[in-house]
Amino acid sequence: MAIYNPKSLKAEEFINDAEILATIEYAEANKSNLPLIDEILKKARPQKTESGVVCAGLSHREASVLLACDIPEKVEEIYQIAEEIKLAFYGNRIVMFAPLYLSNYCVNGCLYCPYHLKNKHITRKKLTQEEVKAEVIALQDMGHKRLAIEAGEDPVNNPLEYILECIKTIYSINHKNGAIRRVNVNIAATTVEDYRKLKEAGIGTYILFQETYHKESYLTLHPTGPKHDYDYHTEAMDRAMEGGIDDVGLGVLFGLEKYKYEFAGLIMHAEHLEAVHGVGPHTISVPRVKRADDIDPDVFDNSIPDEMFEKIIACIRLAVPYTGMIISTRENEKVRERVLRLGISQISGGSRTSVGGYTEEERPHDSEQFDVSDQRSLDEVVNWLMVNGHIPSFCTACYREGRTGDRFMALCKNGQILNCCHPNALMTLAEYLTDYASEETKERGMALIEKELKKIPKDKIRGIAAENIEAIFNSNRRDFRF
Ligand code: SAM
User: Fold this and answer.
1) Burial level of 396, CB count in 10 A (0-12/13-18/19+)?
2) Element (H, E) at 3
3) pLDDT tens digits, residue range 338-351?
4) C-alpha 171 to ligand 1 mean position (Å)
5) In ligand 1, which atom is closest to the CA atom of 253?
6) Which of 183, 328, 420, 446 is the most buried (most CB within 10 A)?
């Protein structure tokens, strides 16, 4: 039997089934253990130090106890601490992005995904470089600066060379004042060599959802194709890091397996990356299975209600305070509003999940990956965020200034976010307002910028940010960053 070892490079040792089962048992046995729960909550709480606010995070066992705890006052405390952590490290900024579907050709047999090989009636599409260009122009015209490119796995139709060519095309387009400044990549697990090529192409985060950490379920849910190989998939982030990508994004597709198992696995995966590479995941995504073409989410009997979903997000926030959290348009406005407070730091807006969807007048459904719950335009989402007290940010500065991996974590830990991320958020919001916003959004945004500028602690930085914002509003100068 495999022995748990977070430093191991073998999937069955760092995502260890026996350790996950023991964790769930330990959490169940201690879910009403008040002294232990109080101790864990104390450890999770942000602490003020001379160099700024720091957070200790939680182990998978500690975080699992909180997830299991159902004492109402303690659950309320979990939410409060999650909000405190969110505010301490991310402030009220929310980073915006959009997915761009390049191709839905796929040789895998994933039971939850409409792109599976056996689906013969879904329209298969792969964007040509001309079509990529048209999609990117449409996305730039909405105001997007950050994309997550998505593709099925098909070595013949979408080989890595195709993905690399698309990335090159995306970065090369400057329509009016538009630019895509960060391309994150969500493609199937691949080799160290391929990850090196993606790094050289200038990608931001490499995102790969584990789907489920439960090996047996994984093998059943991925019956055919290269994705069937659980170990190869689970060890992908180690290969990505070996290939030089130091911002990686984890995720579980909630609903496939029991959430307690997935939660423990996810936190163990983060611990493993920290133990081996000295830096945890850059982001964690929390998708839930959705209805799609020939997919009925009800056949997977592990769906989680909104309240539990919120608790999972809050507990992830406590466990890995320095990791960004992403939510997509799979979730509706109401759920998004709540989880933004509990730890989410990045959301998509105006998304279309079909190949070529952004250049269509109406939202097309024929090649969609999943039903989009939040169907609002980017402008509506931006406006709504501001009404709810958030700053929509189009910032991509960190990665372009070389602040990736542990250098980004250092920025968080040194309390420099208000002098760096905050002005960057305001300057990129100013770009959005000037170039793309509706009158109502613009008016609201300008008032917000004026108010938020005052929060920048250093006089010099505040002065420069205000000057740059003036320049953005009054000229064509763009892309200022700290
Ligand atoms: N093909 C790549 C892979 O296999 O990892 C990644 C791209 S895939 C387009 C992105 C993600 O969409 C998958 O990892 C999966 O978690 C998610 N997904 C697939 N079907 C879904 C569904 N019915 N509802 C919600 N999310 C789904």
Assistant:
1) buried
2) none
3) 999 999 999 999 99
4) 24
5) 16
6) 328
- Atom of ligand 1 minimally distant from the CA of 227: 4
Residue with tokens 């109406």: 362
Distances in Å between the alpha carbon of 8 and those of 2, 3, 91, 275?
11, 10, 35, 9
Nearest-atom index, ligand 1, CA of 106: 1
- One-letter amino acid at 64 equals S
Q: Residue 98 phi/psi, 5° resolution?
A: -135, 145
Q: How confident is the model at residue 89 (pLDDT cuts 50, 70, 90)?
A: confident
What interhelical angle do 17-29 and 259-277 show, nearest 10? 120
Scan for tokens 């001379």, then name that residue.
50
CA–CA gap between residue 274 and residue 267 (Å, rounded): 11
Task: Judge contact between 411 and 324, C-beta under 8 A.
Answer: no
Pairing of strands 93-103, 391-393: parallel
CA of 226 to the centre of ligand 1 (A): 15
CA 316 to chain centre: 13
Cα 37 to ligand 1 centre (Å): 35
b/e sequence 225-237, b meaning 16+ C-beta within 10 Å? bbbbebebbbbbb
Contacts of 38 by beta carbon, 8 Å cutoff, 6+ apart: none
Cα(330)–Cα(286) distance, integer angstroms: 10
Choosing from 253, 298, 365 the residue with most ligand 1 atoms within 8 A of its CB, the one to mutate for a pocket test is 253
Predicted local distance difference test score (pLDDT) of residue 418: 77
Q: Does residue 414 carry a pLDDT above 90?
A: no
Query: Residue of the nearest CA to atom 26 in ligand 1?
Result: 289
Read off the tokens for 356: 């070529």
Cα(90) to centroid(ligand 1), Å: 27
Of all atoms in ligand 1, which is nearest to the CA of residue 152?
1
pLDDT, tens digit (0-9, with 9 covering 90-100), for 209-225: 999 999 999 999 999 99
Distance CA 24, CA 41 (A): 18
Which residue has 């995070």 as its token pair?
57
Q: Which residues form the pocket of ligand 1, taking CB atoms under 6 Å from any ligand atom?
A: 112-113, 150, 152-153, 186-188, 208-209, 211, 227, 253, 287, 289-290, 292, 295, 330, 369-370
Distance CA 346, CA 350 (A): 14
Give CA angle at 16 (11, 22), nearest 5°.
170
Tell me the one-letter amino acid at 354: S
Q: What is the pLDDT of residue 147?
A: 98
Q: How far apart are CA 155 and CA 172, in angstroms?
A: 25
